[in-house]
Amino acid sequence: MRKSVHSIGGVLFSLLMISAIMSNCFGFELDWPEVFDPELLLTLNLELDPAHWQEIVNDMSVYDEDLPEIKRPAYFWADGEEDQKIYVSVRRKSGDPVPPAFGPAGDKISLKIDINKYHEEDPNDPDYPGHPDSVEMWHGVKKLSLENGDDKNVLTEGFAANLHQLASGPEGYGYDSWRANWVELYVNGHYYGVYVNAEHLDKTFLKNRNLYTWHQTWLYQYRGNHNFTLEIGDDDNPRSPAVNALNFYPFPFDKRNSPLYPDGGIAPAPDDATLVTMLDELIDMQGMMAMAATNAFISNPDSLFTHERNSHFLDFDTNDPLVSRKRMYLPWDVDASLQSSSSSIYGTDTDYRLLLLKDTTYKPLYDQVMTNLVNGPLSEANLLDFIDRIEPVLRDAFARDPYNKFVATGYPGVDAAFLSLRTWVTDRHISVRTELGITVSDSDADQIANSEDNCPFTQNTDQADSDGDGIGDVCDRCNFECACLDADLDGSGTVDLSDLAVLSQTYEQTGAAAPGDIDGSQRVSIGDVLVLAKLWLTQCQ
Q: How many whole angstroms separate alpha carbon 103 and alpha carbon 107?
């Protein structure tokens, strides 16, 4: 007997609900990137010698690099994993402690948890050749970076980090830039409140994105003042081809005694036309402009274009066509963000801004990327919707947190913080759109407002729609005959649960080629779910 569309839709709805419930049950089936899902609040626990904890809290090496860094062993687990505690290393991260404004004595410090420290063989470690309770990986990551929100608060810091993830689509980076969520932390049973769980940029970060190739990948951390460090790569060959080629300010490491100093020394910057040709060949300039634009939108005072600080860049072996890719820029350290809602989107006069944001270089690209972001994933409606979704997840935890930096204790302080965040988003949009001269949302800049555009993310001034389905020809992926093939998202030949899983990962993404956009609307939405429901268990030829 043939099932009705309503019956199939009901089954699909049930499957969606089961999937949502499972995503909130924290167990070892959870993996990357779910551990950074902003709508999933994890509770983490550390258990260690109290004297060791005090040594970590009092570690002054975060202020004086000449002092030895203090690392101490601890048992670590998430709620629900009490019978699977693992042996890890814990250290303090840089940044000021957050004093207990309204709670018990103690300091909330930022922490780095090294999951596999005692799993690897190390002859200099007392647990060599490894501790029996250690593991190589915890839910797809080897390190956790827990930020205490010392510059402003954990709500704004986590929100700022998530805007970089929201900007990862085709309108912005075009690649998965960064992830973060919030966690609660207990140390020896004492509640230290809510932290930002910011994804650590390491080899695992790259492998999770299929970006790492041994001896052919270089990840650098830019610290400011023409100073960067090699984080991932071959110490015997620390200079990538791009580091050698980009030998003019502001790109090179300029200390002559460093192995990162370019082979040919520092050269003058080329003329603008040569500069654009060279950078287009070596750097994913849309990704770089997306990082700059997102940092500008969140009013981050410590970014590459505002303070010439705090970013990562990833280089590849340009001599090997199998792994060759353009340089990718990645964000880092957004704890001071969401300052003035009226700050300029063009930053301050750093070397990067002065060279790259001229009318004759990349300012037009920067303006277009910023326009696409504020009309798309960073639109006021999308950001307010994101806040609406995270507030019920975080509200109770924030109210319990004795170490947050809100204006008042308990729920009044939390409610005021969320209200302030919503107000900032609205005010920021007014400021940014005014500076860009945007009066209506027009993501593809074809002079047709998104509300009227039948292909809002692909230019089509003629608005041609041959089959009359409301989707313009230039972005109409299918008609009735090809709908099944488009719904078979994993290419298995059958529309089934695997395709639902693909769609759930990209739900609400927008763009000209958003995965899961079955109906061609350039947004993964309920319309795509309905098509999937209609074709449920259909075998596609």
A: 10
